[in-house]
Design brief:
The complex is a heterodimer of chains A (115) and B (327).
Chain A: H1 2-69, E1 89-91, E2 97-101, H2 105-114
Chain B: E1 6-10, E2 14-21, E3 24-31, E4 34-37, H1 42-48, E5 52-54, E6 59-62, H2 64-70, E7 81-82, E8 85-86, H3 93-105, E9 114-119, H4 132-144, E10 148-153, H5 154-162, E11 170-175, E12 180-186, E13 189-196, H6 200-210, H7 215-223, H8 234-261, H9 263-266, E14 271-276, H10 285-295, E15 302-307, H11 314-324
Helix pairs in contact in B: 3-4, 5-11, 6-7, 6-8, 8-10
Classes of the chains: A mainly alpha (115), B alpha/beta (327).
Chain lengths: 115, 327
């Protein structure tokens, strides 16, 4: 008799345990998903940091190259203007149009006389 | 006069170098434009046999090729100068300008050869702009190329190349892409100079915006040939309106400057007006200028209004005249 009365309780308990287990599994999945997201974000952050570091190295390398190939420009660093780099490598020949015009010799002579 | 210095006109649209050679002036010109592309574009450029500057992390196309190939890469060519001055937004612009100047100037004929380069006057209608940075940037580029650089006013250079027969007394207008420069010279001495921060680019932008076209489309309309006194389409009419506005503004500022400086009392004899610059090459520009000049009560007597004999090269040649005085 007692065993018969206990059966529904056991069933109830089993059902509750099943529900809890289901919730636990769902939570487990959620936790795994959250962990995956965190790992992804960490990887992205690491990649961005590496890219920034590489860019900084590259900039430093470029500046170093300039100071090595054009030491005369080093003195300009303290001035807020620029570092000229007219000696760049080119492929092919840059097109410039060429023509002739009348001499300015007469104007140059006239100006000299006035001065 | 051989190998006596060099003049270089630094314009928003073109860089022009002038050097006396074998009884003539040798002119070398380069479009003031560039295009930056990723290194992967090299393969395509080799197929088109284009020349480029290899900077490692990017490649640069310069001059006309930048303009010609920009459309192929669905890009707009960049300009190292904007509004007549070094463009503040173009980080690569200084490198590009250095290379371009080296291409058109070549090596100095002797160490420290004199090189006169053009600079604009400070714009009267834009007090936020000055020419100090621009002037010093080019001084350093030319110095690094081995020249002894001297900055000289753009509009005054026109007087030196075009007004020898007038005793170097003239009122000159240089209508460029980026701005309009004006100078009054009296026996080779600068009596007045100023600039207006409007030029051909401004006309293209404003006319384009007025008829829902891009500045490039308006530029194409202009280059196809336009008569400013008799426009034949809505686009041409818009261009004509803005040309009129540009000329009227420049003349009005001349009047204001003359009056405020008392030059109307100083300049007693008639002087010629010389109009120059690429923007002044539009059809009937001089007629439009004369019409506008006639409509205003100007405080000076004018002997003639004429186009420069060599409008594209007048500035570079005038700078060469000045450089020759140093050698």
């Amino acid at each position: 008799m007692a065993a018969k009365e206990q059966t529904p309780q056991v069933d109830q308990l089993r059902m509750e345990i099943g529900q809890v287990a289901q919730q636990a599994r769902a939570s487990e999945v959620k936790i795994v998903q959250l962990l995956e997201q965190i790992v992804n974000r960490v990887n992205q952050l690491a990649a961005a940091q590496e890219a920034m570091a590489a860019q900084a190295d590259h900039s430093t390398a470029r500046m170093s190259t300039v100071s090595v190939t054009a030491p005369e420009t080093a003195k300009l660093d303290s001035e807020p203007v620029f570092i000229p780099r007219p000696n760049l490598t080119i492929e092919g020949s840059i097109f410039t149009s060429e023509s002739t015009s009348t001499s300015v010799e007469a104007a140059a002579k006239a100006l000299k006389e006035i001065k | 006069m051989s190998n006596k210095g060099v003049g270089v006109d630094i314009g928003t649209m073109n860089l022009v170098a002038a050097r006396e050679e074998a009884g003539n002036v040798s002119i070398r010109r380069m479009r003031d434009a560039f295009l930056d592309l990723p290194p992967q574009a090299k393969r395509v450029l080799k197929l088109t046999q284009a020349s480029y500057v290899d900077m490692g992390d990017q490649i640069l196309l310069l001059g006309d090729q930048a303009l010609e190939l920009a459309a192929m890469f669905q890009r707009e060519a960049r300009r190292p100068l904007s509004g007549g001055l070094v463009s503040p937004g173009e980080v690569n612009g200084i490198d590009v300008l250095g290379f371009m100047l080296k291409s058109i100037l070549g090596e100095p004929k002797r160490p420290g050869e004199a090189c006169y380069y053009s600079i604009p006057a400070a714009p009267v209608d834009d007090p936020s702009k000055d020419t100090v940075y621009h002037k010093r940037v080019f001084h350093k580029i030319l110095e690094s190329l081995g020249y002894t650089p001297t900055a000289s006013n753009e509009a005054m250079a026109i007087v030196f190349s075009e007004a020898a027969q007038d005793g170097f007394s003239a009122l000159s207008f240089s209508f460029g892409s980026g701005m309009t420069n004006v100078a009054l010279a009296y026996t080779a001495v600068e009596a007045l100079s100023f600039s207006v921060a409007k030029g051909g680019d401004w006309v293209d932008r404003r006319a384009g915006a007025s008829v829902s076209k891009t500045a490039s489309q308006i530029c194409t309309v202009k280059e196809a040939g336009i008569d400013l006194m008799s426009p034949k389409s809505r686009e041409e009419e818009a261009v004509s309106f803005y040309y009129s506005e540009l000329i009227e503004t420049s003349i009005r500022v001349v009047r204001e400057q003359f009056m405020s400086r008392g030059l109307d009392k100083t300049v007693s004899r008639p002087i010629p007006i010389i109009v120059s610059g690429g923007t002044s090459m539009a059809g009937n520009f001089l007629e439009l200028f004369k019409k506008q000049w006639g409509q205003m009560k100007m405080p000076l007597q004018v002997s003639s209004i004429r186009h420069a004999s060599d409008p594209f090269n007048a500035v570079a040649k005038g700078l060469l005249v000045q450089a020759s005085q140093e050698e």
